[in-house]
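Review this fold:
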Amino acid sequence: MKKILIDWIAFTLVKEKEEAPVINLFPLSPQDFSPLPKGGLGYKKIIACSGIKIFTDGAESMGVHTQISGQGCRFLEALGVDLWAFLSEKKKEKDLKFTRLDIALDVDTDLITPCVESIRKGLYISKSRSIKLYEKIGEDKKMHVETIYIGSRSSKVFFRIYDKAKQMKVGGIWQRIEAEVKKDYIITLIEKLESSISDTFCGLLLSYFRPISKKESNISRSPTADYWLKLIGECKKVTLYREPKKKGVEEKFLWIDSQVAPTVALLSEAFGGYEWIEAVAKRAKSRVKPIDWKILEEEKL
């Protein structure tokens, strides 16, 4: 097994409006970045540097968004940035929201061929309903599978297995297994990676795709294909699901602050003061749910 690496990081600083707070996270300066001709993702401005894009000038509640591609990850590592440590440190910050994290495993053996054979024979177990094969005509004028997609791009966990050598136009066998994880699953992933990077990656892969050598009547007991065992070893499945956290008083305040505060400020100007807020609160008190009163009482203890 080769090294597991970080291949994409996307996050938003929800309370910022300028590029400087993002640039200051890394050993970079504003002069390293150049403006792009157009915006994107709802932002009017983008500046870029070696695979790092910073999006600004969006709507009031959009903050500043950052995308670090695979190229950007390698660039930052060359500057001495420990990306694993960066993830562990920033997962604690409430005003930094991760939106996407890709981790990848490079191998120097052919996994695509046996995986395609297992898929076409139906010899696999997957929690993903969608498994797609992307084919392309090779130099021999025949169709060859270059990428396997496991899951939907819109889901919180999505895997792809592809021919990195062909993508980079180099010789030899270089294939990549990549996990794309989104939104609230990212923090759980980072926490598990802190315990073991390899066990977490392999366990997550095992949860979403397991080629088997034969089908048993109890499908879950079907033996794993030898080539897959050689790749992941005797690991345990990893799940990123966790019970949704109940919103406490602080979370409710932060929601008001990020989503409603501009409207509150506007109405206060329109009404010439803040007395209207107290009136609204008094009228709404009878509509507070019992579960929310319970949360308040628990937090007072």
